[in-house]
Amino acid sequence: MIAFKIIVLICILHGVCSKNIDSGERKVDNRIVGGQDAEKDSAPYQVSLQTKSRHNCGGAIIDSRFILTAAHCLYGRFASDYTVMVGSNKLSEASTFYKPDKLIIHSRYNQPTYHNDIGLIRLKEAIQFTDNIKPIDYEWREVPENASIRLTGWGKLSTIGAIPDKLQEIELKHISYEECKKRHDDDENVDYGHLCTFNKAGEAACNGDSGSPLTYNGKVVAVVNWGVPCGRGYPDVHARVAYYHDWIRTTINSN
């Protein structure tokens, strides 16, 4: 990914990094850098995927029983490992929690390269929607180039920082596939299933933001996949929802 060829993203947002950026490797994105506190109830679809009461990944409510997230957040885990927090902008607040009964990873997810990095969580019980707990539609249309896309998540605020208590948000610019690939030195792991965002150094996703939703015109258009941590001047790379729209729809209908 970096100018001297980056290979395989590797910090599965759980904060475990197996490669060093200086050796030119990509890492899974865990946090928002350069953002701000999100307004209360401004992202009622946002969830925190938690293990042992600690934030691990983000996700979005797209159905009363389904959460959209990144496959790498689910890979190697059991449904019983996770609890899904909904309805709050603060991790420390008393919130509503749901338990999953099934983790669904895209059948062509490639763990070494993180292609097809998209997944679904099916909940044991249907979510009870309220003013601050609501689903969001997932987009089938493409996002215009240079569009401003909103990212929300509980990723770290800096590479060595802590997970924030308050939900963060930032507006990021959508850049073309061609520009994204060029900025990543023609890295073959940037593919057509991705949507890339880039503002400037110091504004990006990072550790803890994996699986978090990016929205445009009130619909989720991508989920955070990977990037060069964090906000170092390279585009962030996300699973493009329009590319996976049919997979999402048919998977929900068949489960």
Which terms would index this structure?
single chain, EC 3.4.21.4, disordered N terminus, 33% strand, globular, mainly beta, Thrombin, subunit H, 6-stranded antiparallel β-barrel, 18 strands, 255 residues, serine protease, 7-stranded antiparallel sheet
Could you please describe the fold and organization of this structure?
This protein has three helices and 18 strands. The strands form three sheets. The protein has a seven-stranded antiparallel beta sheet with strand order 8-7-4-5-6-10-9. The chain has a six-stranded antiparallel beta barrel with strand order 12-13-14-18-17-16. A two-stranded antiparallel sheet has the order 2-15. The chain has one domain: Thrombin, subunit H. It has 255 residues and is mainly beta. Helices cover 9% and strands 33% of the residues.
Describe the structure concisely.
The protein has one domain: Thrombin, subunit H, CATH 2.40.10. The protein is built from 3 helices and 18 strands.
**Count of helix runs:** 3
Q: How do the strands line up in the largest sheet?
A: 8-7-4-5-6-10-9
Rough outline: globular
Distance between the terminal alpha carbons, to the nearest Å?
36 Å
**Remind me, CATH topology?**
Thrombin, subunit H
Q: Tell me, what is the CATH class?
A: Mainly Beta
Question: pLDDT below 50 for ≥5 consecutive residues: which ranges?
Answer: 1-25
The CATH superfamily name is Trypsin-like serine proteases
Please give the radius of gyration in angstroms: 16 Å
Helix- and strand-based class? mainly beta
Question: What's the number of structural domains?
Answer: 1
The largest sheet is: 7 strands, antiparallel
**Judging by the overall fold, what is the CATH architecture?**
Beta Barrel
How many beta strands in the DSSP annotation?
Answer: 18
